[in-house]
Amino acid sequence: MKFKKIAALAATAVLTVGIFAGCGGASQQTSSSNSSSKKKVIGFAQVGAESGWRTAETSSIKEIPKLDPNFELKFSDGQQKQENQIKAIRSFIAEKVDIIALDPVVETGWDTVLKEAKNAKIPVVIVDRNVKVADNSLVTAFLGSDMEEEGKRAAKVVIDKFGKDAKLNIAELQGTVGSTAMIGRQKGFNETIKDCPNYKIIKSQTGDFTRAKGKEVMEAFLKSDGDKINVLWSHNDDMAVGAIQAIEEYGKKPGKDIFIVSVDGIKDMFKLMADGKSNGIVECNPLLGPQLVETSKQVLSGKLKDKIVHTKEGVFTQDQAKKELPNRKY
Ligand code: GZL
């Protein structure tokens, strides 16, 4: 089963030395590659450190001062709490950064603080997940994945394997409730399986994108419906990694007794798929540092080309895993 792999944007991740400064419940770092007052400052409010994907995104963002020494980075880890991210944005406004970049843990609740940024004449670039605001002028640009498309691709992996007429009981591990990643992937998957009358999602619960929670929820799914579940659809790889442990401990063979498809494309998931323990990976590219540099340069020069930039991503199945594994950059 061959899927055409679409070339993904790649960038090496080089960590810069950060000066640690506390910031009201979240950790904030400032990094630059050399001292000069002429630098443009990007304030980045990150979701947290919940998954392998997030770690890779953070590494890519932190390489920005190396990628372009004209930029300095102020980085804040929101620890998966919206209030921490809002605090970080307010501190970036107070520090008069040149651009605010936000990867929003959930999509709503940003109108007030983004209005404050607009009043301070600081452009806001949304990265990765998206926001839902009443006034779209609060956001200057968005760069990241088409999450709904990722959900559709995951459903197509299942349909290509079993066909539209198969009778399937599906267990769904949802991402963080209220995040565009969870909302978009669930919408895309559900819309695509509408053509499959005998596909039934019999279990669906959030594992909050983490391995630990993914394992815990899968244990509960197996306890109640272990002998009925044919497919696991996980909104990210980390929850699937946890779920695979739960499936093995339950005494079933992941990738054989239960067909598994997930989103992200982290190395650990490719290793498991190469070992036959998973069946499909929908890529979601976290290496967004280079795109944020490009978008920031365009915004600051008043020459923004596209308000929305979607990353190019592929889909991989078990037969491709061994060959693709050495190419993985995150
Ligand atoms: C998606 C990103 C999601 C990843 C998860 O773009 O926001 O959050 O799929 C991460 O691994 O936790």
From TrEMBL:
Superkingdom, natural source: Bacteria
Signal found in the keyword field: yes
Domain (Periplasmic binding protein): residue spans on this chain: 43-303
PROSITE patterns per UniProt: PROKAR_LIPOPROTEIN
Signal peptide: 1-21
One GO CC term, this protein: cell envelope
One Pfam family of this chain: Peripla_BP_4
InterPro entries with a match to the protein in the record: Peripla_BP_I, SBP_2_dom
Subcellular location: Cell envelope
SUPFAM superfamilies: Periplasmic binding protein-like I (SSF53822)
Alphabetic keyword roster: Signal
Signal among keywords: yes
Record-level Gene Ontology MF annotations: carbohydrate binding
Gene3D superfamilies associated with the record: 3.40.50.2300
Record family assignment: Belongs to the bacterial solute-binding protein 2 family.
Protein name: ABC transporter periplasmic-binding protein YtfQ
The encoding gene: ytfQ
